[in-house]
Amino acid sequence: MVALAAAGVPFTVHSYEHDPAAASYGEEAWRALGVTPERVFKTLVAEVDGALTVAVVPVAGSLDLKALAAAVGGKRSAMADPAAAERTTGYVRGGISPLGQRKRLVTVVDASALGHPTVFVSAGRRGLEVELAPEDLVRVANASTASIGRA
C-alpha cells in the first residue's frame, strides 16, 4: 500500500478474517470479498532459468509455466521453493503481494487482468487485499502482461 500511495494510485483496501483451515487462499478471498474469482489474482513465485520471477494469475485458474518462461525470454521454469519466495519477497505464502517486495523481481501479470475495471491482489498478508485498476498494477509493479494463466 505504501508503494501505491507513493505512486499516487487510487486503491481500496479490503480485509476479511483469514481462516487457517481454508483449503485455498484464493477461493477464501473471492468468497469473502463477494466478487467473481476472475477478478481476484494470486501472486506466485517461479524460477525461470534459475532466476526468481513473479507471476500474477487469476485464482480461478493456474499458472502455465511454459508460457511464463516464454513471456520473460526463458526456456525452463518451475515453481520456486516456498522459503526462497518468502525470503526474497518479504511476504508469507498466501500473502505474497506483487507490490512492495523486499527485492524487485521480474513480474508478469496475466493479460486477462486488463479485461476488468479493477482487480484484487494480496496487500501483503493473508486476509488483506487491495483493489486497483489493472493498468496501475502493471505500472507500479513494473510488470509486463502476457497470457500466462490456464483456466
Notable traits:
five-stranded mixed beta sheet, 5 helices, three-stranded antiparallel beta sheet, globular, 151 residues
What does this structure look like?
The protein is α+β, with helices and mostly antiparallel strands and 151 residues long. 24% of the residues lie in helices and 31% in strands. The chain is built from five helices and ten strands. It has helices at residues 2-6, 25-33, 65-71, 82-89, 134-140; strands at residues 12-15, 41-48, 51-58, 62-63, 77-79, 106-110, 119-125, 128-132, 144-146, 149-150. Strands 5-2-3-6-9 form a five-stranded mixed sheet. Strands 1-8-7 form a three-stranded antiparallel sheet. Strand 2 (41-48) and strand 3 form a beta hairpin. The protein starts with a helix and ends with a strand. 40% of the residues are buried.
Biggest beta-sheet profile: 5 strands, mixed
Overall pLDDT score: 94
Give, in order, the helices and strands.
Answer: HEHEEEHEHEEEHEE
- With strands numbered from the N-terminus, the spatial order across the biggest sheet is 5-2-3-6-9
Shape: globular
The proportion of strand residues reads 25-35%
In percent, how helical is the residue content?
A: 10-25%
Structural class: alpha+beta
* Terminal residue distance: 29 Å
* Count of helical stretches: 5
Number of distinct beta strands: 10
Instruction: Detail the poorly predicted runs.
Output: none
Radius of gyration: 14 Å
Short description:
The chain has 5 helices and 10 strands, in the order αβαβββαβαβββαββ. The chain has helices spanning 2-6, 25-33, 65-71, 82-89, 134-140; strands at 12-15, 41-48, 51-58, 62-63, 77-79, 106-110, 119-125, 128-132, 144-146, 149-150. The radius of gyration is 14 Å and the shape is globular.
